[in-house]
Amino acid sequence: MRTPLMSNALLVFLKGPNPRKGLVPWNVGKLTSQWARRCSGRGGGESPSQSYGDYENAKQLGERVLAADSPYKAVLDTVPNPHPDVKYVARFACPEFTSLCPVTGQPDFAHLVIDYVPQTKLVESKSLKLYLQSFRNHGDFHEACTVGIARRLVEELDPLWLRIGGYWYPRGGIPIDVFYATGDPPSGVWIPDQGVPPFRGRG
C-alpha cells in the first residue's frame, strides 16, 4: 500500500521570517517521518482505509483550479466510497449559490441542500464547489439550475438515491422553491429534514 502524500499544509508549516529567504520550512523531515509512521499504523496512528492511489481520479484536489465559465465545461471528480456496504446519507449545503436570470441578466441567489445515498462513488467536494461556482455567470431559470444540478450528480455518481432542495431568494416579491428526488428513499436510512424554513419576509 502506498503512503498518502503529505498535505501542502504540513509541508509549508513555517517557523518564521528569514532575512535572506523569507519564510523557511520548520523541521519538515520530522513532520514527514511522523506522517509516514501514522499512515503505516505505527506510532499510535491508524492504518488508512484507502491508499493515495485510490484518489487519482480527483484531478482538482490539491491543485489551484479556476472555476469553469459554464457548468457544461465544469468537471465533477469522484472518489471511492469507503463504506459501499453501508446505506448512509451524505449532505452538501450551498447557502450562497448564485446564477443569472436568462432574460434580464440580474443575479439570482439560492440556498441549495443536496442529500444522496452513495453506492460505489462519492463526489469530491472541491470539484462540487467549483461546479456550483461555474453557475455564477450562467443564465438559467431556477428550475433548470436546480434539477440540472441533480441530474448531473446522478449521471456522475449513480447513487442509490438523491434529492435536492433549491430554496431561492425572492425575485419580484415571490420566492421559488424547487425540489427533486430520484424516487422514494431507501428503507433503513436516516434522512433528516433539510432545515430550511419557508420564506416569510419580515412577517
TrEMBL record:
Keywords: Cytoplasm, NADP, Oxidoreductase, Queuosine biosynthesis. The keyword Metal-binding does not apply. One of its GO terms (molecular function) is preQ1 synthase activity. GO terms for biological process: tRNA queuosine(34) biosynthetic process. GO terms for cellular component: cytoplasm. Gene3D superfamilies: 3.30.1130.10. Signal peptide: none annotated. PANTHER family: NADPH-DEPENDENT 7-CYANO-7-DEAZAGUANINE REDUCTASE. This is NADPH-dependent 7-cyano-7-deazaguanine reductase. The lineage of its organism: Eukaryota, Rhodophyta, Bangiophyceae, Porphyridiales, Porphyridiaceae.
